[in-house]
Amino acid sequence: MKSLSSWLLVMFMAMFWIFRIVVAFQAQYEQDFGGFIAFNLTIEVILLFLVIVCMALVLRRNIFGGIIYLGAYGYYFGGYILKNCLPSLFEGETLSMSVLQNTMVSAIGLLIALFVFFDLLIARVRRRDPKDKKTDWYFQNEKYDRKYDERADKNEYRNY
Question: Which is nearest to 14 in space by CA: 45, 46, 44, 59?
């Protein structure tokens, strides 16, 4: 991982993961953490362990880690947004503060997952077609190679 954005995304993944650990721990004792709730405690715990594996894969720049991370967070947090926010928007009801707060956390989780996935896709393109301005002038300059070859052919050194 060479880019700063990749490191920052992994740090955001870890911070969000720690936040969800605290929320799951509070939900185990049937309390909420400042209004934040675990939507389904069983899936939350499975997701916490799955995110550890995904973080390791993302650190190794494996695209499957990003796909699994996006799919798991899309299922868990996207399902909450679809279940709680969209029906109230169509019916014209107002949302409670707790639902809005949890919707915002769900949106943050989905955004982190999307950014990680797109960062891995961009890194895949960078790895396939790397451009390095420091060395490309030498290695990708065919005119220089031809001129060098022509000069080398004209040198007639005697070997005694």
Answer: 59
Domain enclosing residue 125, as ranges: 4-152
Two tokens, residue 44:
């939350």
Rg of the chain, C-alpha, whole Å: 26
Residue 56 maps to a domain: yes
Query: How far is 160 from 158, CA to CA, in rounded Å?
Result: 6
Which pTM was predicted? Answer: 0.73
* Within a domain: 98: yes
CA distance 48 to 18: 9
Cα separation, 97 vs 99, in Å, equals 5
User: Alpha carbon of 1 to those of 9, 59, 97, 115: distances in Å?
Assistant: 11, 7, 39, 15
Whether 110 maps to a domain, the answer reads yes
Give the model's pLDDT for residue 94: 77
137 burial via Cβ count (<10 Å: 0-12, 13-18, 19+): exposed
Summarize pLDDT for 74-121 with one digit per residue, the tens.
999 998 888 887 777 777 777 778 888 888 999 999 999 999 999 998
